[in-house]
Amino acid sequence: MMRLRITFAAAVGGAVLAGGTLLGSAVPASARTVAPMGGCTAGLCSVTTNETSHPVGVAKSWCDARRGPCKGTPRKTLHKNGTTPHGQDWDAFYVNAHCTYRGQKHAAGGGFTERGGSHGKWVQVHNYEHYYIKRVSC
Description:
The protein is an all-beta fold. The chain has no helices and 13 strands.
């Protein structure tokens, strides 16, 4: 019977296979790294849940803080009690102009308040975060 011992070293935004020992055989090259699946890193997807009656826009891929979501990335609307698809990485939600979104942010912990200002804004959701939008006021 073979025994396998694998050690993972986690880092923000990714996980790396740091080392492995396999008694009786070598570790195959394909087992030495952990690749993102569907945009999630080691199963740690970014997730948004809308617990309000106000529709919330979400986007699949984030490009940068100045532009927000990548051009051409899939977008959808979360209605009351909607959550981004399980096992998929949806990197941003949109705060409408003149609105304030409040709720809980898990993994990093605590509450959050995001204001859309006069033009609206995209909020990045990191791979390890789950935003629960609990209140919207406009």
